[in-house]
Design a protein that fits this description.
Elements lengths: L1 E2 L2 E2 L3 E4 L3 E12 L6 E11 L6 E4 L1 H6 L4
Antiparallel strand pairs: 1-2, 3-4, 4-5, 5-6
Length: 67
C-alpha cells in the first residue's frame, strides 16, 4: 500500500543518528459521513532500545528517505 508516495517498509533518517521504518498507516474516518478525514503515518525506530511506535509526517519520511 502506498499513500502520498510513502510505502510500508520505507526507511528514513530520524534525528541526527537514528533510523526509523514506516510500519503502518492509520486512516481517520468521520463517523457521521464515513469519509476519510486524514491519513497518519506510523513509524518505529530501528536498532535502538525503544520499540514504541510514533506518528511522523509524510513529508518528513519523503525528505529524509534512505534509498
Amino acid at each position: 500500500m502506498e499513500i502520498k508516495n510513502v510505502k510500508i517498509g520505507d526507511k528514513f533518517k530520524y534525528g541526527k543518528n537514528l533510523t526509523a521504518k514506516v510500519v503502518d498507516f492509520h486512516i481517520v474516518t468521520s463517523l457521521k459521513t464515513s469519509k476519510v478525514v486524514k491519513y497518519l503515518c506510523i513509524a518505529q525506530l530501528i536498532g535502538g532500545l525503544a520499540t514504541n511506535e510514533f506518528e511522523v509526517p509524510f513529508a518528513s519520511v519523503i525528505r529524509n528517505k534512505i534509498k
